[in-house]
Design a protein that fits this description.
Blueprint (H helix, E strand, L loop, with lengths): L4 E5 L3 H13 L3 E6 L2 H9 L6 E5 L7 H7 L6 E5 L2 H7 L6 E4 L4 H12 L8 H7 L5 E6 L2 E6 L5 E5 L2 E6 L2 E4 L5 H7 L6 E4 L2 E3 L6 E4 L5 E6 L2 E5 L4 H11 L2
Parallel strand pairs: 1-2, 1-3, 3-4, 4-5
Antiparallel strand pairs: 6-7, 8-9, 8-12, 9-10, 11-12, 13-14, 14-15
Helix pairs in contact: 2-3, 3-6
Length: 246
Amino acid sequence: MKSLKALVVDDEPLARERLSRLLLEAGCTVVAELGDGVALLQWLKEPHEADVIFLDIQMPGLSGLEVLAEAPDTPPVVFVTAYSTYAVRAFELAAVDYLLKPVFEDRLAKCLQRLRDRLIRPLSPTELKALVPPPIRFPIRAGDGEIYMELELVTHFELEQNQVWACRGQNRYLTRWAALSEVEQTFPEDGMVRIQRHLLLRPGMVKGIRPASVGRIKVMVAPKVELTVSRAMTPKTKECIQVGKR
């Protein structure tokens, strides 16, 4: 059985370590572990060899997918994600495979067999660019008109006097919405959590947490910006933050 040479790219250290351990146990060789898109870009510029790249779809800064879309002659890619919606999008191409986090041995074994059978081929730059989703945007008020803001920049939404504000850390921008439920209905797959009646959090933007009063936590979404989570929503918020960091 051929020993596959694998490159593991994931910004979460525990996820990298787990996948690398499973690959080694499956008889593969892990040629490198990288933590972000910049490191992947540098690795691709150098004369390395790999039979497959296990790539985390969501990483801060320059995503691995964006790097691959601009890099010629990359090896086959297996996408690794905590979000099934990304997996479905990736699997629209028959030559692509994906692993959902947490990765389990049996699913990884099937993926490795597909690689050995050459059922997963390298993708062209055009195919890779087609997998990069366009930025999700929404309008915010600007004088008498409006401009468009990318959702991925928003840390949370606030409701104040029947007006919804999109917040980017300390900065607030007035939207056209009048209720947080409208935001949730507009972005049903984003995984937002209502941490207070007037606060809607994007868990992937949380930088840290700390205890507040008994049974509550505070989440830091930017330097000097903390949001208090209600006692009822603290368990769910913790769970969503951990899922987003897998």
